[in-house]
Each structure stands twice: as C-alpha cells, then as structure tokens.
Write a structure and sequence with these properties.
Protein name: PEP-CTERM protein-sorting domain-containing protein
Keywords: Signal
Strand order of the largest sheet: 5-4-3-6-11-8-9
Radius of gyration: 25 Å
Helix content: 10-25%
Organism: Methylovulum psychrotolerans
CATH architecture of the largest domain: Sandwich
Mean pLDDT: 73
CATH topology of the largest domain: Jelly Rolls
Order of helices and strands: HEEEEEEEEEHEEEH
Strand content: 25-35%
Largest sheet: 7 strands, antiparallel
Distance between the termini: 11 Å
Number of domains: 2
Shape: elongated
Length: 245
C-alpha cells in the first residue's frame, strides 16, 4: 500500500509540474524579434552613426547626408534640434532617433518609409498585440501592419501638428489591425514626410527622423515536450490508480 501511495504521489507531482509548465507557456510574452528604433537589444542603444540593423528606410527622395541610403542609421539628435524629444538625455533610454542620414541632416523633401520586420513563428498570430509611442520630424503620414494602414484619426489628436510630433512621444495601437498578423514574418511601416520650414530652400540643414518604442505581447505555441510531459504524467497517474483498484 505504501509503495502504491508513493507512486500515486510521484505521478501526481509529475502531472502538476507538467500542467504548470503548460500553463506558463500559454501565457502571453513580449515579441522578442520586435525592436524599438536605435536599439541593439534591451536598453543597449546603437552607437551614433552606426546602422540600425533592425530597421530600414526607403524613400522617393535623395538623401544628402554622407551616410545616407537604404538603411536605418542611428544618431542622437544633432545640435540645433533641442526640440526633439529626448535630445538632451540620449543615454539610458529604451529607444533613440533614426534617419536615412547619420547626422539626420540634408535629407530631401519626400516621404520616407521606416520599416521594422519581426517574426511570429512560435506564437499564436491571432493573439498578438502591439502598441507604443512615436515621435517624428516632420509629420507622420501613416502607420501600417503588413500593408494595412491605421486610420489617421486612430493615431492621435495632434496627428497633423508637426511641432508637437517631434517634441513629445505620442501613443498608437495596432488593435484595429489585429486580423492582419500572420505566422512567420510581419512588418510595420511608419511613413514620415520631410518638409522644409517656411522660407527654407536649402535641404542641407533640414533635419528628419523617427523614434518608436513598442509594447507587445503574444501567446507562445505550446512546446511539444511540455505537452508530452503532461500526457505522460496523466497516463502514469491513471495506470497507478488502476493498479490500486
């Protein structure tokens, strides 16, 4: 009888552990492949002037900066842009400004598409949730998920106010686009218009950039080994009870 009771106890413990592992795995977790602008990982920022490997920038305009062209390039705000959010304290933060030019300056008047790609492999795509904060210079034109755009009025009340777009972070959510998450690769586009100031004619002194911080979660797909362990524990418990009877 003692041996049977010990077996029951052991199998019950195994089942409890397996169920706990399964339950923990089912809880939502942050999307590990989705990165804020200007971040290597965690709170480690990309060095000034170094390409941000997680983001790309494409445009129909010509970038005049020496490091301009096709990839996101990190730089803390240059002198003269103290109105940019975070410009006076760039260290110890969870994001930084990126642009198509290393110094953010000399970028042609055009729309610039900043893209970040992330992977939902290993997650239930229909459980994904992404929101966050953004700032831009000049006006943010749109935010889209896999080519599907948020309506302008869903972004912020100051959506069309250029001065406030770059001086504070504004909230956004992709809740209205949740049906467009897919298993595997996904992308988010932020389209920013760069414009000259009133009376300005020389783009060489015209700054532009984007800053984004994400909050995300998604439910991981249950690991096969966890499910197998749960099943093994339950089968062992059932078999032991039958022996007792």
């Amino acid at each position: 009888m003692k041996k049977i009771n010990k077996s029951i106890f052991g199998c019950s413990a195994l089942a409890v552990v397996a169920f706990s592992l399964w339950a923990d795995g089912a809880q939502a977790a942050s999307i590990s492949t989705l990165f804020n602008t200007g971040v290597v990982s965690g709170t480690t920022l990309v060095a000034n002037g170094v390409a941000d490997s997680h983001w790309t920038v494409n445009s129909g305009g010509t970038a005049y900066g020496a490091s301009a062209g096709g990839s996101g390039v990190l730089s803390n705000p240059p002198s003269g842009t103290t109105y940019w959010v975070g410009s006076t304290n760039p260290s110890g933060q969870t994001s930084s400004w990126i642009s198509s030019a290393a110094d953010h300056m000399g970028v042609a008047v055009a729309n610039y598409t900043y893209r970040v790609t992330f992977d939902l492999s290993g997650y239930h795509a229909n459980s994904a949730s992404i929101s966050g904060m953004w700032a831009s210079d000049n006006q943010l034109q749109s935010i889209s998920l896999n080519g599907h755009t948020i309506a302008g009025d869903a972004l912020t009340a100051t959506y069309a106010t250029a001065a406030t777009q770059r001086s504070v972070l504004h909230a956004f959510t992709l809740a209205s686009l949740s049906a467009y998450f897919t298993s595997g690769s996904n992308y988010i586009d932020f389209v920013v218009n760069n414009a000259l100031l009133a009376g300005q004619t020389d783009p060489s002194s015209n700054p532009t950039g984007l800053r984004v911080e994400f909050t995300s979660d998604a439910s991981p797909i249950d690991a096969p080994e966890t499910i197998a362990l749960l099943g093994l524990g339950m089968l062992a418990l059932t078999a032991t009870r039958r022996r007792k009877n």
